[in-house]
Amino acid sequence: MNKEISFIIIDDSELDCYVTEKFLQRANQNLIIKTFNDAQEALELIRENNNKNEVIPTIILLDLQMPVMSGFKFVEEFEKISAEIQKKYVIIVLTVLSSSNDPKDIYKILTFKTVKSIVEKPLTTEKLTSLLKHVPLSGGK
Amino acid sequence: MSEKIKILYVDDEPENLVGFKASLRLDYQIFTAVNIPDAISCLNNNPEIRIIFSDQRMPGKTGVDFFEEIRVTHPLPVRIMLTAYTDVESIIDAINKGNIFRFVKKPWIEADIIWAIEEANKFYMANSMLSVKNDELQKAYNELNKFAYSVSHDIRGPLTGILGAINLAREIDDTSEIKEMLFLMEKSVKKLNTYVLSMHDYYSMQRGELKITEIDFNKIIDELKSIYIVNSKINNVLFKVEVRQDEVFLCDEAPLRLIINNLLSNAFKYQDPNGGIHSVEVNILVADGKATIHVSDTGIGILESHLGEIFNLFFRSNSSEVGSGFGLYNVKSALLKLNGQIEVTSVLHQGTTFKVTIPSI
Question: E strands along chain B, which residues?
Answer without folding.
Answer: 6-10, 29-33, 51-55, 78-83, 102-105, 212-214, 238-245, 250-252, 279-287, 290-297, 341-347, 351-359
